[in-house]
Write a structure and sequence with these properties.
By secondary structure, the chain is mostly helical. The protein has helices spanning 13-32, 35-52, 62-79, 81-84, 102-121, 124-135, 140-147, 151-173. The protein is 71% helix and 0% strand. Helix 2 packs across helix 3 and helix 6 crosses helix 8. The termini are far apart.
Length: 174
């Protein structure tokens, strides 16, 4: 087998896809509310990462930079007319797997689905912030870099998003 040296400035796309692919797919699915569109968004993200990797300046982590690209791709997709006019698709595979009795598993899955549905109904900026913080595990400073905003703004968005979720979930259970 012949191994060719990589050109300088080009990323190891196999490593990037292995390290970030699954997480980006989950994030894009939650953000776009459609698993198939999310797959397209992740593909487009990797294409942009490959094309623009030489412009990566290490001012943030590679993960933060790639996530920012993915969020921008998702936002661009949501602006398109075809996205706004598509029927809603619900991806239950995003709900958490539960262990225990079948009854406990069903209850946990139902609660997880209710939470994901509530997150999907949040306004875009709160949904994005909640997903990055709770589902992707980014710290407020990293989210601020992704969203090009101040850390205090991220903290306010997290608080408001949680408050909205609390209200939505309380209304849904009554």
């Amino acid at each position: 087998m012949l191994f060719l040296p990589m050109e300088p400035g080009l990323p190891d796309l196999d490593r990037i896809m292995e390290d970030y692919g699954t997480g980006l797919l989950r994030l894009c699915t939650l953000y776009l509310k459609d698993h198939h569109l999310a797959q397209d968004a992740v593909q487009e993200t990797f294409i942009k990462v490959y094309a623009k990797y030489s412009s990566f300046r290490s001012e943030s982590s590679e993960k933060t930079w790639i996530t920012r690209i993915a969020m921008n791709v998702c936002r661009d997709m949501m602006r398109k007319r075809a996205y706004r006019e598509r029927p809603e698709e619900f991806s239950e595979y995003m709900a958490a797997d539960a262990s225990g009795t079948p009854e406990e598993s069903a209850i946990d899955r139902d609660e997880s689905i209710m939470l994901l549905d509530a997150i999907r109904r949040l306004p875009d900026i709160y949904r994005q912030t909640i997903l990055l913080y709770y589902y992707k595990g980014f710290k407020a400073d990293e989210i601020a870099k992704i969203q090009h905003t101040a850390r205090s703004t991220v903290n306010v968005r997290l608080k408001r998003g949680r408050d909205m979720l609390r209200t939505m979930l309380k209304d849904d259970t009554i």
